[in-house]
Each structure stands twice: as C-alpha cells, then as structure tokens.
C-alpha cells in the first residue's frame, strides 16, 4: 500500500521532558499491562467486519545485532528472519504479518545500518533501511536498555519527523540497576521526541504481547492487506537460502568474513518432499576451506542443521545439497550484489 493511501502520521513535537514527566513515563512503562489490554492469541483469525478492521506498517530499526530479527520472529509467532551473534545477519527487508482481533500488524524487519564498510553490499543494505522508515505508520527503534552507541546515533539520524517512534529498550532483563534508567531515558528523550518508551525482552512472551497493545494504537482504520493466515511475504526459496546462511554464520563464528552469501540453484517439490540445491559463495579460496572443514565435516553439519530447521518450519521432508564456490570481490561489485538478490 502506498503512503498516499494512508492517513498521515505525525510524531509528537514534544518539548524536552521534565524529571517528573520522565519518572511518570518510566513508571508507566514498568507497570504491568492489564490483562484486557494485552493481545489475546485466542482472538486471532476471528471474523471482523471491514469497517472495524485496523491495519498498518510497523518498521523495526536499530544498529546491527541488537535483537531486531529475534523480535520480529516473536511478534509473528514463527521464525521468518534468521538470527546469529554475527553482525549483519539480516540483509533484506523482511515483512511479517500478525492478525489479532481487529488489528493486522505488518512488521518490517530491516538490516542493521552499516557504518564500517562502504562496499556495494553495505550500500544496498543501507538503502533498504532508508526505504523502510519513510513509508510506515510506526517505527520501533530498538536499542539495548541503558546503552546508546555511536551506531545507535547513526540510526537515530534516519528517523523521520512525521512518523511516531517508540523507543524499545531491548534486553531489559539484563539491566541490574534499574534506577539508572531514568537519567538514561532523559538523555534519550532529549535526542528525539519518542512517542513512548517500552522496556522489554524480545524473548519474554508477556512483553511481546504487551507490545501488540502499544502498537495497535497507531494502526489506521482500514481493511486488512493480507490473509489472516499469512505470516510473511517471503518465499520458501528465500527462506531456504536464509536458513543455510544462518547455520553458516553460527557454525563458522568470526572465522568467516560477513561477505559470504547463499544462492539457491534448485528448488523442487515432489509430493511431501522438497529438493533443494544451494551454493555458498565466499570471496577467497581460504574461506572455502573454512566452510568445508576437515573431511567436509563443517559443510555437512551446516547442511544437516539447515535441513532439520526447514523440516520443522515446513513440516515436511527436505533433501538439501550444498556446494561452495569462490567469487572474488563480489561484495564490491554492484552488478553481482544485485544478481545475488540485494536491491
């Protein structure tokens, strides 16, 4: 849906908050949400008249490796975005849907905004982030609770003035001295007029349910854009490539440069079986050895774990065949970056 077809949103032009208002904001955020205000999964997929439906886009933005994909998966209720401790795991704009009661949420996960490398791959990723924040109804700006890094500041510079932004303090469960949150929140609110402050852990189901109730207030009244049973706009072919890449990153750790990627060569369905052939692309011959491992054991494990995860998600048998190829300098080649699916 184009932005012109949605009612315009506007972020509150709030003055610098007082200590009293910040204390109240913090107290409200830490207070447990009443049960009736929390999204009830039992309400999902119940018939709702079109005139009672609400639907809108919610972008999830933040620096690399801050928990955006974990949050998206929790909100959707199924794994659709891969995760790992390696920065730059997410490389695409991934959209996930969740319909609860009269509300349909269209969540947009984005790559972490890149500042360290100026190659063609990172330029493509940053373009994706910029595109995502300009055409939404609400932005969830994800940071680590109690912290503000230079990379966070770079993302904050991208926040538009005409879209409400919720400051989502993720990994709140790791904060030991919660009394220090008030001065931190004051410094954050001085940097940007956030509409709301939400301390949470993306791994806490109750926190995730509470976030639905908060986001629902910003959805415009309009008909749902997707079937309530749908979860994402991404194809199974895309999910297969992403799952292989996740296992690649998790099992190679920091040994393998972030520029490795995965290309699906074949995706066929035969009854209850999916046959997939994929190529892991690396930039140097030495990287190829890291991926294959001694006697091919590393590559075999990557394939096994990816296959098992795909079988769990799709509830069917999967045959997965992996190859490794060297494409020197592909991440600096605009044409090749586009050919590998990065816009």
Provide a quick synopsis of the model.
The protein has helices at residues 19-30, 68-76, 120-133, 150-156, 181-191, 205-216, 236-252, 285-292, 297-314, 334-339; strands at 54-62, 94-100, 103-109, 138-144, 165-170, 196-199, 261-270, 273-282, 317-326. It is α/β, with parallel strands linked by helices and 343 residues long. The two termini are 19 Å apart.
Specify Rg, calculated over alpha carbons: 21 Å
Which stretches are poorly predicted, pLDDT < 50 over at least 5 residues? 1-15, 34-38, 86-91
Number of domains: 2
**Main structural class:** alpha/beta
CATH fold-type name of the largest domain: Rossmann fold
Q: Main β-sheet, in a few words?
A: 6 strands, mixed
Shape: globular
Indicate the proportion of strand residues: 15-25%
Characterize the structure shown:
With 343 residues, the protein is of the alpha/beta class. The chain folds into two domains: 3-216, P-loop containing nucleotide triphosphate hydrolases (Rossmann fold); 236-339, GMP Synthetase, Chain A, domain 3 (2-Layer Sandwich). The chain has ten helices and nine strands. The protein is globular. It starts with 18 loop residues before the first helix and ends with a helix.
């Amino acid at each position: 849906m184009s932005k012109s077809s949605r009612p315009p949103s506007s972020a509150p032009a709030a003055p610098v908050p007082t200590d009293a208002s910040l204390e109240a904001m913090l107290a409200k955020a830490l207070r447990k949400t009443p049960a009736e205000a929390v999204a009830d999964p039992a309400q999902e997929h119940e018939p709702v008249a079109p005139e009672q439906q609400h639907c809108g886009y919610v972008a999830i933005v933040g620096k690399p490796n801050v928990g955006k994909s974990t949050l998206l998966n929790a909100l959707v209720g199924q794994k659709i975005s891969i995760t790992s401790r390696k920065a730059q795991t997410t490389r695409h704009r991934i959209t996930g849907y969740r319909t609860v009661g009269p509300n349909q949420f269209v969540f947009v996960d984005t790559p972490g905004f890149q500042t360290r490398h100026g190659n063609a791959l990172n330029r493509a990723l940053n373009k994706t982030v910029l595109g995502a924040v300009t055409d939404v109804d609400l932005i969830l700006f994800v940071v680590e609770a109690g912290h503000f890094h230079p990379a966070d500041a770079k993302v904050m510079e991208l926040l538009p003035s005409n879209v409400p932004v919720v400051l989502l303090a993720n990994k709140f469960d790791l904060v030991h001295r919660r009394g220090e949150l008030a001065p931190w929140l004051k410094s954050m609110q001085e940097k940007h007029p956030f509409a709301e402050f939400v301390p949470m852990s993306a791994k806490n189901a109750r926190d995730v349910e509470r976030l639905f109730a908060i986001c629902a207030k910003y959805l415009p009244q309009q008909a749902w854009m997707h079937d309530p049973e749908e979860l994402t706009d991404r194809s199974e072919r895309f999910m297969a490539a992403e799952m292989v890449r996740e296992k690649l990153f998790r099992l190679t750790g920091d040994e393998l440069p972030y520029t490795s990627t995965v290309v699906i060569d074949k995706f066929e369905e035969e009854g209850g079986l999916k046959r997939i052939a994929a190529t892991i692309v690396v930039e140097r011959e030495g990287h190829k050895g890291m991926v294959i491992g001694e006697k091919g054991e590393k590559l075999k494990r990557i394939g096994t774990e990816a296959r098992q995860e795909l079988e769990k998600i799709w509830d069917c048998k999967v045959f997965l065949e992996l190859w490794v190829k060297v494409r020197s300098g592909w991440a600096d080649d605009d044409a090749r970056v586009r050919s590998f699916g990065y816009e």
